[in-house]
Amino acid sequence: MKRREKLSTDLTPLVDVIFILLIFFIVTSVFKKDELALMLNLPSSNAKESNIEKKEITLELTEEKIAYQGKEMELNDLNLALRLIKNRNEPIILRIDKNVKYERVVKILDLLQEHNLNNLALITKE
Fold it and tell me: How confident is the model over 57-79, as a mean pLDDT?
């Protein structure tokens, strides 16, 4: 009687497929930078770069949306959030899309001034 050899599966192709999938997901994934909520097209500037502390308040502004600390919200909700800030000297980082109307920017600046938040930094492209 002939003895049959045990059948075993070859794992080499499986490992190859896993590596290909891993490379695919790494290449196609979008890495989130600085907890930004809105996709902004920032204006460019020749001003020198300044260092900003790690503890900061981030505001993002587009033509239709506002984001505070990486979360989209309405203007009334932003007013409430700004009222809850305890340290009035904390840096406020403003990221404003270059297509935003000046009137909308002034509304945000007025709101910040109303809450006595004057430590502002406008972020631009290099």
Answer: 89
